[in-house]
Amino acid sequence: MTWITAALVVAATLGLVNVIDSHLISKRMPSLWAFLIPAGIIHLAYGLIFLALHPLPSGVDAFPWFVAVASAVTRTVAVLLMLYVMRTEEVSRIIPVVHTQPVFVAILAVPLLGEALNYLQWLAIVITVAGAVLISARWGGSGRGARLRKSFFLLLASSLLFGVANTATKYALDYISFWNMYSLTAISLGTILPLISVRPRVFRELRDMKDRGIPLMLIAFNETIALGAIILSFWAMARGPVSLVSTVMGARPFFVFLYALALSRTFPAVLDERLSRGIMGLKIVSIALIVGGVAIINLVD
What pLDDT score does 213 carry? Predict the structure, then answer.
């Protein structure tokens, strides 16, 4: 498996994870905070298991450890911002904005990590991100043009943090294994997400939930496939230029759109997606840009 193939698998898998997250947060769980507690506990358990299976190496200087931990915490905050917006926004609009992060990765990786990109690769990044931004736009009637929701800036902050986290992860992977990077990330998710959610009201919400079994089983399933995708993403980052790995993983909006389209046709109650003919056309053009950018990367790598 090449890093490009791995990054595409990650995009497809995390796209499914995001769709299930959206369904759980907006339909199944009483609140975002009630969702974060079991999700965080599952990540913490997996992180500790993999830490026992793949202990942290000795002989690594303090600075790479600092960067690795900072990457894990930054990624956790980015995930939290994305999930916060997911309470009220369509997942097919959230994920494209978050995946403008290849621009931030490229800007950071070239001077900080010494990565070199030719003009075609820069073009691929621009095309991919243009598609991601276009898919998030809302077009008003009566010539009012396009506008973005207020949540756009929260999502842009999430994108920036993901970009910083990916760049820091690439640096840390020169000193520690992708298994170690996963353990630190999972422990960060498993510590921070439940801690910010712990309050009496949230425990009452979880206690009073009817039919808790199905949502909790769905959370366990979702976080387990997320585990595999996160590990594979770190594997890809260890083997390829992080700016291009991030761009290929930026194909996730394409998969989210396909999943959302399929669900809106077969199980319309699962997601709150509005897919009129005009919105469909806009998203198809956006997806063409995203796929075109990924194709360029494949051709010039």
Answer: 86
Mean pLDDT value across residues 262-285 = 69
Three-state SS across the chain? CCHHHHHHHHHHHHHHHHHHHHHHHHHHCCCHHHHHHHHHHHHHHHHHHHHHHCCCCCCCCHHHHHHHHHHHHHHHHHHHHHHHHCCCCCHHHHHHHHCCHHHHHHHHHHHHHCCCCCHHHHHHHHHHHHHHHHHHCEECCCCCCEECCCCHHHHHHHHHHHHHHHHHHHHHCCCCCHHHHHHHHHHHHHHHHHHHHCCHHHHHHHHHCCCCHHHHHHHHHHHHHHHHHHHHHHHHHHHCCHHHHHHHHCCHHHHHHHHHHHHHHHCCCCCCCCCCHHHHHHHHHHHHHHHHHHHHHHHHC
State the pTM of this model: 0.85
What crossing angle do the helices spanning 3-23 and 242-249 adopt, rounded to 10°?
Answer: 50
Query: What is the C-alpha to C-alpha distance for residues 150 and 96, in angstroms, rounded to an integer?
Result: 15
The most confident of 24-33, 65-74, 240-249, 262-271, by mean pLDDT = 65-74
- Give pLDDT tens digits for 250-269: 788 888 888 887 877 776 65
CB 206 within 8 A of CB 215: no
| Residues 107, 228: Cα–Cα separation, whole Å | 28
CA distances to 147, 161, 182, 227 from 104, rounded to whole Å, are: 22, 9, 22, 24
- State the CB neighbour count (10 A cutoff) for residue 147: 11
The Cα 145–Cα 108 span in angstroms is 33
Q: Cα separation of 255 and 298, whole Å?
A: 18
Domain limits of the chain? 3-300
Per-residue model confidence as pLDDT tens digits over 80-95: 999 998 887 778 778 8
